[in-house]
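Dear colleagues,

I hope this message finds you well. In preparation for our joint manuscript, I am sending the Tyr recombinase domain-containing protein (marine sediment metagenome) sequence together with its predicted structure, so that both groups work from identical material. I would be grateful if you could confirm receipt.
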Amino acid sequence: MANDLMSPTGQPLALNEMPSGVRISAKSDAQAVMAWLDEYTDSPQTWKAYRRESERLLLWLASQHLTLANINREVLRRFEEFLADPQPSEQWVGPSKPRAHPAWRPFRGALSPASRRQSLVILQGMFAWLVEAGWVNHNPFRLMRDKSRRLNNQSPHIERYLESELWAWLWQWLNRPVAVGQEVLTKRTIEKGNRAHFEQSRLRFIFGFAYLLAPRISEMADARMSDFQRSEGRWWWHVVGKGSKVARIPLPDDMLDCLGQWRQILGLPHDPSALEADTPLLRALDGQRSLGHNQLYRLIKATFHQAAQSLEEESGPPQHVAALRQATPHWLRHTSITHQAQSGISLRHLAESARHARLDTTSRYLHNEDIEWHSEQQRHRLSNSPSSRYNGADA
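The corresponding structure tokens are as follows:
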């Protein structure tokens, strides 16, 4: 970032005067932030998210002719307002473009309350690190009133997931025969190499993989065929997840079937082998190249929108149509973990499958107690209330 951080107008950010007593090798705010980001190089997705939020802050400070050292509570309040409505829009908001593209902008639009909260959570951690590094002398986030509540980015329960009825419809929709022109193609009539069939088969596998194993988007894109290994007659998925944490996840039978069907589409034997170490799991249309993180993200997002359109045309429940339109690829992970919990998988094993460091993180996916509570509450009815000792005449 220190070398390529640019303003939305394409001008490089100016260097600020180096504070005294610094404990890092930096000569500008951008270099100081880059030193902080270097702590997260082993987690590419975290690094990318942290760079996005820190870069937005530095670009806004440059537009205000301020530096990190100038941030006080009032400046932070103005930045919060800016995140909710980045103006002027033509300077800050634009379509998704590579960062080197002239039309690149830091925002796709105004940030939702949850996204603003996430941004502030990240920047609070950045400032805590910069204080320890001696780059700034205070953390303005400490002055926030009710900080623990405002910066708590975890809701009591996970709500961003597809309900069971909606997932059942979506999976059925993904498995519909592909229509090409006037010809309806099925598994038996499609010749290998048909693009429509390949694309539908790939979508089925992507959504099946996401639902059955709860991978993060980066874990899906980086997966290799050899990550699926058999040990003592049982199949496991070996994955290096968030924070370079290594995990081994049991494969449900349905996942093994999905994998075998996908490999058949690619012209491969049913079972993967250790000899396929460099073979990507998810493929581009040529059947050889791997799908990048952004490609996979856009593919899943576009599929949600197409499904929403189809469900709306079928006069499906409006709340389900709205959920599909709002859904992001990470909803699939939430959906998987939530449905696994609802199916009765123990909290301990669920935490292992989800690769959660803390059980209370996994417990946010447990909706069974809510269902039981709601059911029990139905016992409390007006018809069960004791009759009044007063009748109309007495009154």
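For the figure legend, we might mention the following. The beta strands are 178-180, 183-185, 228-231, 234-240, 246-250. Residues 180-193 have pLDDT under 50 and may be disordered.

With kind regards,
E.M.
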